[in-house]
Design a protein that fits this description.
Blueprint: H1 10-23, E1 48-53, E2 61-66, H2 68-74, H3 89-105, E3 109-116, E4 121-132, E5 141-152
Antiparallel strand pairs: 1-2, 1-5, 3-4, 4-5
Length: 154
């Protein structure tokens, strides 16, 4: 999905502006340790996840922090969870292409998806992935923002 589509979600648009003000103006990426929680847009707290890559250079990720809404969506506290274990394999394979593109370009990625949850709910979501780099260059984390809708399947 083109990044311009982020405007369809005020939540994602706010997070993109937040990231751009910190990263693009300086010409490099920020690392997760440089994120001040008090500086994040308040309306995004429940929708955020902070992810770090494990076993670099693989794209396997661990949840460092997840907002209350994201945890409720998955039905559990996600801190410490390995991301690929949270999704059906076919859904995660699609996500890997987006993650790879974000790492290669060091640019945000926006996606729109529909997935079936393990408890058979249809989850429609907009996702914004914002790259982080502790050294300012090499992507080693993501601020993920989800804007979702859940529909029970019949």
């Amino acid at each position: 999905m083109p990044l311009t589509e982020v405007a369809r979600s005020p939540l994602l648009a706010t997070m993109l502006q937040w990231w751009q003000a910190r990263c693009r103006d300086k010409g490099c990426l920020i690392g997760r340790k440089a994120i001040d929680p008090l500086d994040l847009p308040r309306q995004a707290f429940s929708h955020l996840s902070l992810l770090e890559f494990v076993n670099a250079p693989s794209f396997r990720m661990r949840v460092v922090l997840a907002g209350e809404g994201v945890c409720a969506l998955f039905g559990r506290n996600l801190k410490g969870a390995i991301v690929d274990e949270l999704y059906r394999a076919e859904d995660y394979e699609v996500a890997l292409a987006d993650i790879g593109g974000m790492v290669a370009t060091r640019e945000p990625v926006a996606v729109y998806r529909e997935v079936v949850s393990p408890d058979d709910r249809l989850i429609t979501y907009f996702l914004l992935m914002l790259p982080l780099a502790s050294d300012g260059t090499t992507v080693d984390g993501i601020v993920s923002t989800l804007d979702w809708k859940i529909t029970p399947r019949i």
